[in-house]
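Quarterly update, task 2.4: zinc ion-bound model.
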Amino acid sequence: MDPLRRVINDGAVLVEDGVIKQVGKASEVKPHSRAELEIDAKGKAVMPGFVDTHVHLAQALIRGCADDVSLIDWLRKFVWPLQGNFDAGDGKASAELCMLEMIKSGTTTFLESLLHSRYGLDGIAESVERCGMRGVLGKTVMSLPGYGSEGSIMHPGMIEDGETCLREVESYFKRWNGKANDRIRIWYGARSLGGCTPQLYTQISEGAKRLSTGVTIHLSEVQEDVRYAKKEYGKMPAEFMDQVGLVGPKVVYAHGVWLTEPEWHIMATKGASVAHCPSSNLKLSSGTASVPEMLKAGVNVGLGCDGGPSNNCYDMIREMKTAALLHKVRTMDPLTMNAETVLEMATIKGARALGLEDQIGSLEVGKKADLIVLNMQKPHLTPTFNAVSNIVYAAEGSDVETTIIDGKVIMENMVVKTLDEKSVLQTANERAFKVIKRAGLPVKAN
Ligand SMILES: [Zn+2]
């Protein structure tokens, strides 16, 4: 992934002080002095780490707890009661489980969209700092306990007050934005339509401008979003967002399944992005986003894994294949979105969505060294005619062997150095069962 979309055989990358200094043929890439660390990538692919533009860190702990239901029931009967029973220890355990999975499958940067206060924001930010990932953390902002026209359905444990949310974003921003060598960013995580008043959306927009930060929101995920926007505001969802000042760079709409052509044009002109989450949309039967059409209209579209109960995994390689296949069958046109387009969505377009395209998302001199090494010497990745095809259509997250973020080797030979894998898994399991018990849900366990 570079501006010319080159695949360099017998290539090499030189990293110095966390920055890519040289990329090219191995015979041409030469350190000035002996390198501190040399990674032999023979038979392997070196590429930029994935940028997941829609993640719920706190949902890793409730993976498999809400299958086979529609979105509103999924939220009301399962996800909200479970997350409404979280404490800060659960939030941290879930975030570490999620980040462990992301590091192991090659994701180096993520946008978390809705961190409620009860998950313990400082604990989660500390975990991001310690585990070495690049994390954009959206603090929830809400004032209404509903979804669309379904008012007052939110679990009491999840309800927050608008003014407090706005104050918390500011204090969280002051404490954490730019920390960990600028790996941590703090954004506004606005709740979807029916969760905020129009005045609150305007305040979010003003706050984001004042802090020069971003905003993410679930938008047009299900048809209810469109019905609600038309009924309450007489507009389509993105038209309403335009009215409250929430269309522009560093604005990411999660899902965008039901966005329409006039809305794409507003977004393309003003610079808002979509986080396309195909697995989640398929599993919750939300619909199929018009991704090839939006790309053609000039909308920036990244990819997102969403969460533990909606996907149910955080593996961007799997997500790439799902995205490619979904749009081929939806349009009945195998040419509609090729492997390279999907790889762009998972890397450079994701970086653009987060306003980080000048820093990450490709292997270019001067960019931060966020890169991964995939072992291509496996039966399912042989023969090696076309690396891009193999990575998008045949690879698996577990083919990632080494993950480097900000020039630091976070995982080497499949061993994560910044998190104790065994204890993360054990803690997550123990806490998950306790949360289910506290919530009193009839979740099937075996
Ligand atoms: Zn989501």
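Highlight for this quarter: Residues 54, 56, 113, 218, 254, 306-307 surround zinc ion (CB under 6 Å).
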